[in-house]
Amino acid sequence: MQDAEIPEKVRETFEKIKQNSASKVKLIEIKGSYFVYAYAYVYDENINRKRYVQYYLGKIEKNGKFVKRYRKMGKYKAATFSEYLRARFGSDIDRALNKFLYPDPETLAILQALSMNSRSHVAEIAKQTGIPASTVSYKLQKIIETYQIRKTVEIRPDTFGFTRFLVTVRFLTTMKPRQEEIKALLEKEPRVQLVLAMTGYYDLAIYIVAESTEALENIIYGIRSSKEFAPYPAAWNVSYIIEPVGWFVPLRNEFFEQLVKQRVWHRTKETPRKLQGQLTVAEYTVLAEMNKDAGQEFKEIELRNKLNEGSASYTYDKLLSNKTIERATIIMQRLPAKYFAFLYVVQNDMGKFNRTIREYLEEVIEETEFPTNKFVYVADVSSPYGAILIHPVYSEDNVEKIKEELLQKVKGVRIRSSIITNVLLGSIGTRKFDMQQSKQYELLQNIVSQ
Asked: Edge to edge, what strands does the sheet with 24-30 contain?
């Protein structure tokens, strides 16, 4: 169900339920009525595989009132979702859920190894982690399936002439465009890589990769002037964005097929040498192919695209060395997170912020027991100056608690918080990065050594 179709009071009540629920919840609309269900993927010994299970919690009336279910669930006599799971699937359900939410150390180590190089083979992962190759081999495919891992590459588009920008939108009335209309409009623009629908301070975040500020301005003017957006008063903010080592937004395949392909250099009398921002046929092919699937063999790429033998492997190494590709990595497409918090940390007193920058860096790179890093996205932004943080919420914490904890440690900032309700386009770069290789860790070490 699209978020824009939900009455405002129903949406507000559902977000409160989501924040306070110990399990993942969803909202289902049936003939104009709104029903709340808890759900989980659990291991069922009877069929020897995972299955999807949901549990009816209650109904939200259009005025925002939540009416809980008035009786326990059937023969299981369960008053809560956890009770129902334990009654139906046995005492091992807690262990199964905890394994998904709190992976064992070996699983975390393998996830991190894949995040740092998704092309690593079993023997390489075993050597890096110290886990026996037989254990890695046994766990690897299971991990990929559990978290629905997609192998891709982390790319720096600035190396071939594109700059990253973030657009935030805050509608000034309760009237907003429908989410399916937003998606249909923005997916036509290959420069748009990620669109987040949110509730809270902001309603939308749009991540754009453009070849110039002129191109960016034309895109934004076109979006704001469109029939989808023009009728709705809104505050729009555009910011240049810097992603430090450790975080990234995956690029859509359409970006390569419709834009980067135009930058492929072909030797002619007029252009005997490649110009700045241009790519060779092999460079473009490897970038586009690896963006789709970084796990495929180079021989497959060469055969499919009629490249010379060995050229794909050589080109990939070259793209790594010049940092056009940072690394082959992963995106975890299924996580046990309740929701994602979007935090815009505005730096309004640089003196105070700089005095607590160590606390900020420690907060950003803090290790967790969960499948991902504490923050799955961190970026510096310029308007207003500050940082964007995206935090997956796995525990009982809510976005206000997360914000308050950050404000207690980091001074000279104010935080505009939102909850991501839907990823309309693209995907967030969810992975388990080795924070000791991040830019923030390097900065922290420099501060500590002074």
From this structure: 24-30, 33-44, 49-60, 66-68
